[in-house]
């Protein structure tokens, strides 16, 4: 039997089909037989070398064998009960496992929870993983995510596989990858929101996970999508920030780029707005330009901010448009109306939903740490009194949604029985701390312990009547974003006689959203045991001298 020749119509179809395959090559297809570096990575590295640049060791490691293809190395080491050496640790982070030695002889696993929204059965499964394979607790992070700690070497792959079993594969949660997408935690239940971000976050999350080229970045990358709801998402601290707005052309997301507050920069305006239907395509194009243009010779200047500083925003957007094959939509400021700002500390307490008769409860966690019993208990509360939905926030706390009004008293009592609360003082509601030196080698101080001590000290001495955010971060990586806090504390070693003690550089006046401002250093090197008095003095000064309604931010 011979092949029949294709008709002109069939040939035209095949030409289009193959053009589509070529266009998507490296995005849905593995590059090369049996995988290999994504095409975009190879091209960006080749361009760097052609310009005479020397790739940093992390880039050389990716070039030798792409980290996504090195799961076998990770499992082989685990079978021998060994933790990775530094460059292998970098590779392992593509699979969500971080070796946190020498602070702890253990792995940390960072999850990937799109928009921070979980089902009760997932939280219960996480509790079992924490119990069987980790330290018996989970930490809520400042990206509305969870981290498991104290994972022995042999259990690392098991944690990753068990998370994959429940639809939470932690791929790309560390190293040079796109981190957990943050979004409005009240999406779909918020009377104030303009756009329910859940379908978009889901689509973008899967696009990232299934697009091999997007594991070719020169450095980490953060994306946030705010729907205009009542809970602050801190979207302007992200590399890509999309915020829902009303415009003369209908609902859109306002695009800002290059936020990195650890480097003292908020995302900058672009004049571009994006429709819901275009979010994935625009994000993809931005990421591909970053992959091509990001610095692969110096880790310190490899983030998107530095590409924008070098090229300027218009030149960068021009390349994005080239990738898209069409112009971006631009609107003047007077054609855009922003929604009311989120309530400061709106993530705490009981709030009515847009669904009549239903409420969400903002539960305060002790600096993000939840024991196995509390994880199980919260899943049970969500299932018994709500719809079985748990929503993590960037404030290291969580919401239980869809609770009928008549069930609120019982739900609150069940939360209290877990040792948790829906109430917090104006100081504790915005108290955030990174992992600190109990679990992170970069930390100068024990941030979580000092944060708890600071809150106890202050609450005994002063009744603050307006929300004040206090963020403690252990090092300049600024995971707890000290620059955008009303009171921002950056870990520092402090001389005391011949010794060095733990302490902090004290910053004030930072803020996000309508209060956007980078905090300023007012007192360096305050020892941890003098912190209470120093902060108390600031708060008393503000309360004594403020004019009516003046927030701490303006002080
Ligand atoms: Fe570790 Fe520094 Fe991040 Fe704190 S801010 S968790 S010390 S890297």
Automatic annotation (TrEMBL):
Segments traversing the membrane: none
Nitrite/Sulfite reductase ferredoxin-like domain mapped to chain residues: 104-163, 351-417
Keyword entries, A-Z: 4Fe-4S, Heme, Iron, Iron-sulfur, Metal-binding, Oxidoreductase
Matches recorded under Pfam families: NIR_SIR, NIR_SIR_ferr
Domain of life, per lineage: Bacteria
Domain Nitrite/sulphite reductase 4Fe-4S: 175-327, 431-543
GO molecular-function terms, A-Z: 4 iron, 4 sulfur cluster binding; heme binding; metal ion binding; oxidoreductase activity
PANTHER family assigned to the protein according to its UniProt record, in alphabetical order: FERREDOXIN--NITRITE REDUCTASE, CHLOROPLASTIC (PTHR32439:SF0)
Family: Belongs to the nitrite and sulfite reductase 4Fe-4S domain family.
Alphabetical list of NCBIfam families matching this protein: CobG, PRK09567.1
Protein name from the UniProt record: NirA family protein
Species for this entry: Neoroseomonas oryzicola
């Amino acid at each position: 039997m011979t092949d029949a020749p294709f008709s002109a119509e069939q040939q035209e179809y095949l030409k289009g089909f193959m053009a589509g395959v070529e266009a998507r090559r490296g995005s849905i297809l593995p590059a090369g037989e049996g995988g290999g570096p994504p095409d975009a990575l190879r091209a960006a590295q080749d361009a760097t070398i052609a310009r005479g640049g020397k790739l940093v060791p992390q880039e050389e490691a990716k070039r030798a064998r792409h980290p996504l293809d090195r799961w076998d190395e990770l499992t082989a080491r685990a079978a021998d009960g060994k933790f990775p050496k530094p460059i292998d640790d970098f590779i392992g982070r593509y699979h969500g496992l971080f070796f946190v030695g020498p602070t702890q002889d253990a792995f940390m696993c960072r999850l990937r929870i799109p928009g921070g929204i979980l089902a009760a059965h997932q939280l219960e499964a996480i509790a079992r993983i924490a119990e069987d394979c980790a330290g018996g607790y989970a930490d809520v992070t400042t990206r509305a995510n969870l981290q498991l700690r104290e994972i022995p070497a042999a259990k690392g792959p098991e944690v990753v596989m068990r998370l994959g079993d429940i639809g939470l594969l932690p791929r790309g949660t560390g190293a040079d990858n796109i981190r957990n997408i943050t979004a409005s935690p009240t999406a779909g239940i918020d009377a104030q929101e303009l756009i329910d971000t859940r379908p978009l976050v889901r689509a973008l999350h899967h696009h990232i996970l299934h697009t091999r080229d997007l594991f070719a970045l020169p450095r980490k990358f953060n994306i946030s999508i705010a729907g205009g709801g009542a809970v602050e998402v801190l979207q302007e601290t992200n590399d890509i920030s999309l915020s829902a707005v009303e415009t003369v052309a209908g609902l859109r997301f306002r695009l800002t780029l290059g936020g990195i507050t650890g480097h003292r920069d908020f995302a900058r305006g672009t004049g571009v707005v994006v429709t819901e239907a275009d979010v994935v395509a625009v994000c993809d194009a931005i990421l591909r330009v970053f992959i091509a243009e990001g610095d692969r010779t110096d880790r310190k200047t490899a983030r998107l901010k530095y590409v924008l500083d070098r090229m300027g925003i218009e030149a960068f957007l021009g390349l994005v448009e080239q990738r898209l094959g069409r112009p971006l939509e631009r609107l003047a400021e007077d054609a855009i109306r922003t929604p009311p700002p989120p309530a400061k500390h709106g993530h705490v307490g009981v709030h009515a939903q847009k669904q009549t008769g239903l409420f969400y409860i903002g539960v305060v966690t002790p600096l993000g740490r939840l024991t196995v019993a509390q994880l199980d208990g919260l899943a049970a509360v969500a299932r018994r009194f709500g719809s079985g939905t748990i929503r993590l926030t960037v404030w290291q706390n969580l919401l239980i949604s869809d609770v009928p009004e008549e069930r609120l008293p019982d739900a609150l009592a069940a939360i209290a029985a877990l040792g948790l609360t829906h109430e917090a003082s104006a100081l504790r509601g915005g108290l955030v701390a990174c992992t600190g030196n109990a679990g992170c080698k970069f930390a100068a101080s024990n941030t979580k312990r000092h944060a708890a001590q600071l809150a106890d000290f202050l609450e005994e001495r002063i009744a603050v009547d307006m929300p004040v955010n206090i963020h403690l971060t252990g090092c300049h990586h600024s995971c707890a974003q000290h620059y955008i806090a009303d009171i921002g504390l950056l870990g520092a070693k402090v001389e005391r006689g011949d010794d060095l003690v733990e302490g902090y550089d004290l910053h004030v006046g930072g803020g996000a959203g309508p209060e956007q401002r980078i905090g300023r250093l007012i007192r360096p090197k305050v020892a941890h045991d003098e912190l209470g008095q120093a902060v108390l003095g600031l708060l008393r000064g503000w309360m004594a001298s403020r004019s009516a309604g003046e927030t701490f931010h303006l002080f």
